[in-house]
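A.,

Following up on our hallway conversation. Structure tokens first:
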């Protein structure tokens, strides 16, 4: 009896860790799929550029973060991987004045 309950719980946890898209099964640790089926994005707001940069650096394991400052988008940092590329975990560390609403 206990074994079947444990098996069911393990199955439910595994189902939560995997999502299905047109390309097949994609593992998305730590975040679920949004309405489009793509992984949800994480936007963390910091008051200053320095705070945002340091938060992205910490999440990237001490590596220099990637800065984005595109017209029409809020300036932000991404944590980087060992090759200096954006980590594909959906994290954005925004900074500056926060908009209401």
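Then the amino acids I'd put at each of the 101 positions:
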């Amino acid at each position: 009896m206990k074994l079947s309950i444990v098996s069911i719980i393990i199955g439910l946890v595994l189902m939560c860790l995997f999502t299905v898209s047109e390309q097949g099964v994609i593992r998305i640790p730590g975040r679920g799929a949004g309405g489009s089926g793509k992984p949800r994005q994480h936007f963390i707001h910091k008051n200053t550029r320095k705070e945002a940069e340091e938060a992205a650096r910490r999440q990237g394991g001490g590596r220099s973060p990637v800065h984005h400052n595109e017209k029409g988008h809020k300036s932000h940092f991404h944590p980087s991987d060992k090759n200096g590329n954006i980590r594909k975990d959906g994290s954005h560390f925004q900074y500056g004045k926060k908009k209401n609403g």
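The radius of gyration is 18 Å. Curious whether your intuition agrees with the design.

B.
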